[in-house]
Design brief:
CATH architecture: 3-Layer(aba) Sandwich
Largest sheet: 6 strands, mixed
CATH topology: Rossmann fold
Helix content: 25-40%
CATH class: Alpha Beta
Number of domains: 1
Radius of gyration: 20 Å
Strand content: 25-35%
Shape: globular
């Protein structure tokens, strides 16, 4: 994509010096006596963990961007910030457009409601009217292929069934930004092909896709750009083949502390 094309395209996601910090409690009582003693203790042992350490990047309309990195590198934290699950500790995040997210099995579903009832619940949470939800319902049912299970409580669903319904809902609302985590790995091969075809349709229609996966073949097929994350730092941002090849080489060795220097304009 040329610099001119980048300027013309709508900025969908902007991270500027984003820090995400979590407080980790180090004490865990093993007995009832220790639990009572802990209640009267004035101090609790904890430490702060930075999942993201000042990350900056921009993703524009129509881009399909992969985030690659080892487990615990900060990939899913980035997706949850974009989805609004986390509020960053520091830095600025700007999101433009409706977000459809597949970032965790069962996320956004009420376990005691049926699949059909959860379609309505998710649609309402995403800002659709009941009329708009019902207009999309049959397409969601056809894509998910859950049969009679659609009227069973989702707490009875397998991980594959959760994924089917979640993907059908997240994509049928036609979001501007689609977030996909490793959740697709739980689907069977036939359904994964259906998902790949729908993702490709999103790409053709100029939607923005952010894809997190350890399946580097899928990463290369779906995305044209990749971000490489490790230890909360951005190590690379560029064409998918170059970044994935760099990542594969680093995985065979070690990640040197030379994060990518990205320039993000001020708000």
């Amino acid at each position: 994509m040329s610099d001119f094309d980048k300027v013309r395209r709508i900025e969908r996601i902007c991270f500027q010096d984003v820090v995400q910090r979590f407080r980790l409690i180090q004490e865990r009582p093993d007995t009832l006596r220790e639990a009572f003693a802990h209640l009267f203790r004035k101090q609790t042992s904890y430490h702060d963990f930075e999942a993201l350490k000042g990350i900056s990047f921009i993703i524009r309309e129509g881009e399909a961007v992969a985030i690659v990195g080892r487990n615990g590198s900060g990939k899913s934290t980035i997706l949850k910030i974009i989805a609004g699950v986390y509020r960053p500790t520091a830095g600025q995040v700007r999101i433009s457009g409706q977000v459809g997210a597949l970032i965790e099995l069962g996320a956004g579903f009420h376990p005691d409601l049926t699949g059909r009832e959860n379609i309505v619940l998710n649609g309402l949470l995403l800002g659709l009217s009941k009329r708009e939800i019902h207009a999309r319902e049959q397409k969601i049912l056809d894509f998910a292929e859950l049969g009679d299970f659609i009227d069973s409580p989702v707490k009875q669903y397998s991980s594959g069934m959760f994924m089917r319904l979640g993907f059908a809902v997240a994509t049928e609302i036609d979001p501007d930004i689609l977030l996909i985590d490793e959740i697709l790995a739980v689907g069977d091969e036939t359904f994964q092909r259906k998902c790949a075809e729908r993702i490709e349709d999103f790409r053709r229609r100029g939607k923005t896709i952010v894809f997190v996966s350890h399946n580097l073949v899928a990463v290369r097929q779906i995305c044209h750009r990749a971000l490489m994350i490790d230890s909360g730092l951005l190590f690379a941002d560029g064409p998918v083949d170059e970044v994935v090849s760099d990542y594969e080489q680093r995985m065979q060795g070690s990640f040197e502390q030379r994060p990518h220097a990205s320039a993000v304009p001020s708000a």
